[in-house]
Amino acid sequence: MTPSRRWTWALVAAPVAALAMISIVVGPAGLPWGTAIRDILSGHDSVPALILLEIRLPRALLGAVVGAALGMAGAAMQGLLRNPLAEPGVLGVSACAAFGAVIAFYSGLVRLFPGALPIAAILGALLGTAALFAWAGRGATVATLLLVGVAINALAGAATAFGLALSPNPYAFYEVMFWLMGSLADRSLDHVAIALPCVALGAVPLLLMRRRLDGLSLGEETALALGIVPSAVARWIGLGTALAVGGAVAVSGVIGFVGLMAPHAIRPFVGYRPGATLIASAGAGAALTLAADIAVRLLPTGRELQLGVMTALLGAPFLGWLAVRRRSNGAAGTSWL
Amino acid sequence: MIERHTIQQNKTSSLSPHPAVAMRRPPSAAGGRRKAACLLSLLVLLFATPVAASEPPARVVSINLCLDQLVLALAAPGQVVAVSDMAHDPHLSAQWQAAQALPAVRVRVEEILAQRPDLVFLDAFAPSHVVGLLKRAGVRLAQFPEASTFDDGVARVRSLATALGRPEAGATLAQQMQERRAAPADGEHRPLAAVWQANGFSVGRGTLQDDLLRRAGFRNLAAERSAGPFEPLPLEALVRAAPELLILESPASDRPSLAEALMTHRAARQAFGTTRTLVMPHSLWLCAGPQNVAALDRLAAARRSLERRR
Amino acid sequence: MALIAQGLRRALGRRLVLDAVDAEIAAGTITGFVGPNGAGKSTLLRILAGIDTPDAGTVHLDGARVQSFTPSARARRIAHLPQVAQPQWPLSGRDVVTLGRLPHGAGFDRLSPADARAVDRAMARTGTAAFADRRLDQLSAGERARLMLARALATEADVLLVDEPTAALDPAYQIEAMTALRAEADRGVAVAVALHDLALAARFCDRLLLLAGGKALRFGAPSDVLTPAALKTAYGVTFALVAFEQHDLPIPVSRPTLAGSSDPSRAG
To answer: Is B54 helix (H, G, I), strand (E, B) or coil?
Structure first.
C-alpha cells in the first residue's frame, strides 16, 4: 500500500472540516445564519455575529486544535516508544500538564501574567514525559510502560486535586472534574489564542521527527545503524509532546484516550508508517474530539456531559479491546498490536 | 463544567467543613425537599420555643452564615461566643468585621460543644446527625426555616431576636429594614435583568435574589425562562436574550476559579460592556437581612442609570 | 579501503567483553567473526559500526576515526544489520527495505530515482522482490530476515557489518544469505559477519577472527584459524575437520571430560 500524499491530506482535512461545520451549527438555539455571516463580514456587532464568532467558533476551533494535538502526540509517543498503548492521557503526561496549569491558575499567577497558564502546563507535561522516559525507559515492555504511566497518572491526578483543595476559593475544589475530565464548554477565542501557538510550536519538532520515527520501526538497534540517535529523537518528541499537550490541557483539561484511538484508527490507511501516522492521526484526533464534543451537546443528559467522560467512555473499552486482541494474537506474532 | 452555584447552597447550609460543600440536591427536587425541610424546622421550632421562652441565653453559637450575620447584629455584647468560619470571610459576610473577635467553628459537633453553648442557632438544612447529637448533648437548639424573600428576612430578624431574649432590638432593626427598603416599582418600564453566577447558573423564582430584583423594579430573565430556582443559563442564551442589565457577583475569594472566570468571557464582555453590567457583592444578597437594603440601593441606582440612558 | 580496529577494549559493568582486540576488514573480502556465545562478536560489530563506543582503542575507516563521523555520515558508509530486528508496525516489504536509504536523506515519501533503484537492487539480490507489497506480519521469520538483509544492502555502504544473518534461516536460505554477502564482497564492499556456523564460516569467509572471552585468539585465513587446537581452546570442544571441495569444515565431535566436572555418560 503506497498511499499518495494528496490522498492522505484529503483523508485528514475533509472529515475535520465537516465536523467543525457541524460543531458550529450545534447550539442551544437556532441562529439566523444569514444575518450572522453578513454581520461578521461587514464588521457589524450584532448578537448573532457575536454568538457565531465568540461562542460557536472558538469551541469548534478548540475541538480541532486540542484533538489534533492529542492525536499527534499519541502517534509520536507510540512511534517513539514503539508501544501501541502509549498515549499522553493514559500515561499521565496530560495529568501532569493539568497539575501545572492548576498551580499557575489557582495561585493567581495567571492574573499577573496570562502566559503562565500554558507555560506551567507545558512544564508539567515535560516533567511527566521525562519521568515516564526515565522510569520506564524507551525500550520498556508494554506492561512496564503502562504500570509506570498508571503511577504517574495517579500521582498527578492526586496532586491536582490536592492543589485545588489548597485554594481558598470555594469553587476550586469542584473544578477537579474539569481538569481531570476535560471540557470545551464556554471556551472563548482567548483560549484559542493560548492553545493554538503552543500546539503549532509543538507540532514542529514532532513533524521534523517523522523520518526518524520511520527509522525506529525496526527497533532502536536498527535505528542506530541507520544513523538515528534514539535519545535525541526522544528529547525532541518529549519537547514537542509537552508543548502540544501542555497547550491543549491548559485550556481543555485532560481529554483522555484521543491519542490512543486516533493513531490506531488511521494507521491502516497510511501503510502503518509511523511518520505518516503523525499527520493522519492529528486529523483523526481532531475529528474524534469534534465528534465527541458534538455528541456531549446532543445527548439528552440533564447537564452537558464532560468531554473527557465521553472520550473515556469510548476509549477505555478500546484500550481493553486492544489488550485482549494483543493477548489472543500474542502467539501469532502480530507484534504491532 | 456546569456546577450548581455552590455558594448559593451555602446560604441554606453552612454545615460542612468547607464552604463549598453543601447539599447537592438536583434543581427539580429542590422544591419538595424544601417543603419537607420547612415542616421539619417548624417541628423543631415548636420543640425549641418553650425553652427559648425562659431566660435569655448566655453562650450562643451560630453555625450558619445567614444566622451568624443576624446574631452578630442583634446579640448583646458577650452573648455570642462563636460563629461559623464563613462569617469571618469578607467576600461572603456583611458582618465579617464584627466576627473577627470571635472564634470560628465548623459544623462539627466537637467544635460546637467545645464552646459550651447554651443555645445553638442552625438552619433548616442542618444535617440530622449533627442536630441529633447536639440534642443528646443537652444543648438547646433554635432552628430556622429558609428565608428566601426580603420579608422572610424581616420576620427572621424578629424571631431570632426573640430567641436571643432581645425582642426590642429585633423590632427596631426590622422597622429600619422596612423603612429603608426601596419603594416598589411604579409600574412603568420594568427592565429585564439577568443574574449570571459562577459556572453559568442563574437564579429564578423562589430565590432571595429574584425577590430583590422584583422589589427594585426589574424583570428577572431566569424567572421568565424557567420555573426552577437555580438553573443553568448558557452563555449563548444569555447573549441572545439581551437583557438590559447583566448582574455578576463579586469574587468569592481572592484567588481565581474557573467557575468565576467564565464571567469574563469575551462574548459577555462585548455584549454588555461595563455600562450594562452590575457587580453585586455576595455579602449583600446571599442572605436575607439588613444588608439587603444596600443591595436594593445598588439595584435602584443601576435602574436609574439605565433609565437615564434610554 | 579498509575498516581497521586497534586495541579495542570494552567493559560492561565488571565484565570485560573485549580486551585488546585488533581487526581489519578489507574491501572486497568477507571477514568472519567466530567464537562461543559471549565471546564479544556482537559488541565488536557494534563498535566497528560506530554505534557503541570502546573504552579504549580506535576504529578507522580509510584513515578517519569512525567516532568522529556524524551519525548519518557514518550510517551512509557503514551498514550494520543487528542480530534481532524488532519490527513494531506491519510495514510493507518495500518500506522495510526503503529504510536502508534513510542515511541518504530519503524518506518513504521522499525517494529519489537513485534511492528507488538501490531499493530494487537490494530486493533483487536477496530474492525479496516478491514481498514488496506484503505486510511484514504476513511473512515468515525467514522471509523477514531476508528483508532485513535487503534493508542493510539498500544502503549500498562501503562497509557491511552483519550479525548472525543465518540464525533463523533454513539451510537453503543460509546459503542464499551467504551468497548475497559474497556478491557484496565481490563488488568491493568490506564485509564482516558474525557467525555461529563454523562450516559456513569456513566456506564463505576470506578471513576469520576467532574470539573467546573477549580476546582475539587467532586472525587469518580460515585454514589457519579453524584448527582443532584453536577451536578446542575457544569452545572447549574437540573438533574434527571434514574435507569438502577445497575447504576443511570443522565438525564438533565430543565434549572433553574435565577433571572432576561432568560425567561423560550424562553428557551423551
So the answer is: coil
One domain for residues B247 and B202: yes
Work out the average pLDDT over A233-259: 97
Q: What is the pLDDT of residues B190-216, one digit of tens each?
A: 999 999 999 999 999 999 999 999 999
To the nearest whole Å, the CA of C216 is away from the closest chain A CA by 24
Which residue segment(s) compose the domain that A230 sits in? Answer: 38-328
Chain A neighbours (≥3 Cβ pairs under 8 A) are B, C
Question: Is there a contact between A218 and C90 if contact means CB atoms under 8 Å apart?
Answer: no
Q: Which residue from C49, C71, C96 is facing A228, i.e. has the nearest CB?
A: C71
Considering the domain boundaries, does residue A23 fall inside one?
A: no
B99 lies in the same domain as B157: yes
> Which CATH superfamily does the domain covering C2-267 fall into?
P-loop containing nucleotide triphosphate hydrolases (3.40.50.300)
For residue A220, pLDDT over 60 is answered with yes
**Using CA atoms in the order A318, A323, A325, A330, what is the torsion angle rounded to 10 degrees?**
160
Q: Is the pLDDT of residue B39 over 60?
A: no
A182 Cα distance to chain centroid: 11
The answer to whether residue A9 sits within a structural domain is no
* Residue B187: inside a domain: no
Instruction: Tell whether B170 and B210 lie within a shared domain.
Output: no
Q: Does B37 share its domain with B81?
A: yes
- CATH code at A301? 1.10.3470.10
> Please, what is the end-to-end C-alpha distance for chain B in angstroms?
37
Taking an 8 Å cut-off on Cβ atoms, the answer to whether A175 and B267 are in contact is no
Suggest the residue from A103, A164, A166, A171 to mutate for an interface test with chain B (most B CBs closer than 10 A). A171
Q: How confident is the model at residue B282 (pLDDT cuts 50, 70, 90)?
A: very high
Q: pLDDT band at B4, cuts 50/70/90?
A: very low
Q: Are residues B276 and B133 in the same domain?
A: no
Q: What is the pLDDT of residue A308?
A: 96
Q: Is the pLDDT of residue C41 over 50?
A: yes
CB contacts of A82 in chain C (<8 Å) are: 86, 88
C-alpha A185/C-alpha C66 separation (Å) is: 57
Which of B1, B239, B242 lies closest to A175 in CB terms? Answer: B1
Is residue B186 assigned to a domain?
no
For residue C4, the cross-strand partners are C24, C60
Range of lowest pLDDT (A202-211, C69-78, C159-168): C159-168
Quote the CA–CA distance of B210 and B203 in Å, as a whole number: 7
Q: Quick check: C99 and A5 CB within 8 A? A: no
Number of domain units in chain A: 1
Residue B1 lies in a domain: no
Contact A55 B253 (CB under 8 A): no
pLDDT above 60 (res B3): no
Residue C137 to residue A215, Cβ atoms within 8 A:
no
For residue A293, is pLDDT > 70? yes
Whether the per-residue pLDDT at C205 is higher than 60: the answer is yes
Range of the domain at B267: 192-309
Q: What share of chain C is helix, strand, coil (3-state, %, to 5)?
A: 40, 30, 30
Do the Cβ atoms of A111 and B256 come within 8 Å? yes
CA angle C204, C43, C126 (to 5 degrees): 40
Asked if the structure places residue A335 within a domain, the reply is: no
The CATH number assigned to the domain holding B145 equals 3.40.50.1980
CB spacing of B1 vs A50 below 8 angstroms: no
CA distance A112 to A115: 9
Give which of B13, B225, B236 to mutate to test A binding, by max A Cβ within 10 Å.
Answer: B236
Q: What pTM did the predictor assign?
A: 0.87
In a domain, residue A239? The reply is: yes
pLDDT band at A142 (very low <50, low <70, confident <90, very high): confident
Chain A hits for B262, CB-CB cut-off 8 Å, are 186
Query: Nearest residue on chain A to C91, judged by CA atoms?
Result: A272
Distance from CA of C213 to the nearest CA of A (A): 23
Tell the residue number behind the cell numbers 573467546, with chain if given: C212
Can you give the residue ranges of every domain in chain C?
2-267
Write down the ipTM of this complex.
Answer: 0.91
Closest residue to A171, CB basis, from B234, B252, B254: B252
Identify whether residues B72 and B97 lie together within a single domain: yes
Whether C168 has a pLDDT exceeding 90, the answer reads no
Does C82 sit within 8 Å of A225, measured CB to CB? yes
Asked if B239 and A105 come within 8 Å (Cβ–Cβ), the reply is no
Dmax (CA) of chain B: 61
**For residues A318 and C220, what is the distance between their CA atoms, to the nearest angstrom?**
59
